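Lab meeting, action items carried over

1. Structure of the two-component assembly. Owner: GW. Status: complete.
Input record:
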Amino acid sequence: MSQIIIYTIITLVGIGATAAIILYFVAQKFKVYEDPRIDEVEEVLPAANCGGCGFPGCRNFAETLVKSESWDDLFCPVGGNETMSKAAAILGREAIEQAPRVAVIRCNGTPEFRPRVTEYDGAPTCTIAHSLYAGEGGCPFGCLGCGDCVSVCNFDAIHMDPKSGLPVVIDDACTACGACVEACPRDIIELRKKNKKDRKIFVSCINEEKGAVAKKNCSVACIGCSKCFKVCKYDAITMENNKAFIDSDKCVLCRKCVPECPTSAILELNFPPPRKKEVVEASKIENS
Amino acid sequence: MSLKTFTRGGVHPPEHKLSAGNKIRELPPPEVAVIPVSQHLGAPAKVLVNRGDQVKVGQLIAQSEGFVSTNIHASVSGKVLKVDQFMDSTGYRKMAVQIQVEGDQWLETIDRSDDLVRNSVLPAEDIRKKILEAGIVGLGGATFPSHVKLMVPKGKNAEYLIINGVECEPYLTADHALMMERSEALYSGIQLLMKGLGVEKAIIGIENNKPDAIEKMKQVVEGGPVTVQGLKVKYPQGGEKQLVQALLKREVPSGGLPIDVGVVVFNVGTALAVYEAVMKNRPLINRVVTVTGKSLEKPSNFLVRIGTPVSTLVEQAGGLPEHTAKVINGGPMMGKAISTLDVPIVKGSSGILLMDEGEARRKEVLPCIRCTKCVGVCPMGLEPYLLMTLSERSLFERMESEKILDCIECGSCSYTCPSSRPLLDYIRLGKAEAGKIIRARKAV
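Predicted assembly:
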């Protein structure tokens, strides 16, 4: 009886030892060297695997960071400058700072401003609706409201407002990964520079039609009148294809353009309410 | 007479041919016509007229650009109001010529009489040239330029001409009416096409829900090289690949065209347009459109000028019924809903279908139950449930290997799905995306 046990043990140990020796030499022969810094860099990345950096997953981005000579086009929008400087510290180099960005919805076609003239009951995705027709409000450039941007967001940073039928971005949750920008078949969403207290000034319309045509569908459409362009002192506004565009990198948030817009297409968000006139007048009287 | 049909898949939607047997009524030119410059597959035509120009009926107003493109002619006479972007049936704006109609002056070269002209002495070359000049496209709905079909590529040989009188779409009766009323002219057109192609044999395929048309066409073609073949009613028999299979038992290879098996298919409307173009010098400026719907007062077949607003047709058919919920350009299976009635009739408009609230609304979408009914009815032998899932997940390259480009967009899968899943919507999207990927690959 005990003999069987002894033979078994000897045989198994023998097989194990032989296999271990073979495996050792095979592993030596086919060894793949991997820079240990890749693991370290991957550790500091957010592990969201969102693709916001333009690479398929954080691991791939970490590899690229380690291998690349120049970091000009490399940035993790989710982790931001903090993550990038950590990664730079591991690799002993300088990080390139980038201003944080946030997704902005450039359509303000609520049912109030852009009445629904038709009803869409096809497959509920914007991509299909876009390929079929101009949309419920009739504007061929406006938001279709099926929420393709919502379904691609990995960070729960965007949701549909049932009242306005438009997507709303939660600025604190948005990581500017750009997934929604890619998903929108009409290129309505733009990544803009994040300002103090989430203040924003932007043209909430990308309609390229002639003014009269655009206004027929939506009362807050940009009609390409160039009034804002003329008033801007900082060259932040450009007129192209019959619409105005405010460059968020040049804009200083002076708000001069906002009252100029005849259709209220320029939105100012998160600014304190304007100071009351009476107070100003009262102080004037006191001074005089 | 034995009836034929295609073997794979197919569905039997209720026919609802409400306007069958109604005579074709010619509508007068509209007050203002809007003529888009892209009414065909391929490159848009180049506009030749300017604002303020006087045009006559039949005058060339936009020249074809490239091989797959066609000429566009003025369908009315009068003054050009605008050359601008106008709304098409999708609500997007496309380039079009707007003409304020003044009188009804035709070019002198056009023979406007109803006299039947037979036995053309023109050589095949001239027939093809006239078809090209007249801007004729496939009037069955796909609007593929006809002159391209007549140019048989090198190494291929056309043996049969098939004339498609199937009209398998429910509701539509335009082709039926044409076969009943213009059978002689149609026969002449078929002979011209045969000559242009250089084929000896032609078959007219007609479904047997139109026994009068089969009878009529048989009488007309008696003793000639053209035969008439009755077909069992089954959708989508009017698809050219299905029709070739039904009539000749030849299978068009995947990714191929009927010419690969020696066949060229034309619609009856196209054959008639060819007759008018070659024998009467008349470019494609009007077409027969079925205006129909269960709640419509007078479902009709109208002969209308290209560029007439849809609203005019609906008015002539008894006005828009109160509970209309959807207006479809084309038939119920393949047509697309239009967002406003202020869009013009174009070369490809075969019908205008009005649906009320109950008919129009899609049913609630339920999960796929893997019943594979869609696979059973697909006339191209595809797997629609799989294609839809792939499209939902944006796996377009995988769709390509699943032969998405063979899909003829007949809608049999969506029609038969017990869960009312929007199969065709997703498949169309995937087909377009896969097509883009393939073109991009070819361009490299």
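2. GW to write a short summary for the group page. Key points so far: The CA atoms of residues 147 and 160 of chain A lie 7 Å apart. The radius of gyration of chain A is 28 Å.
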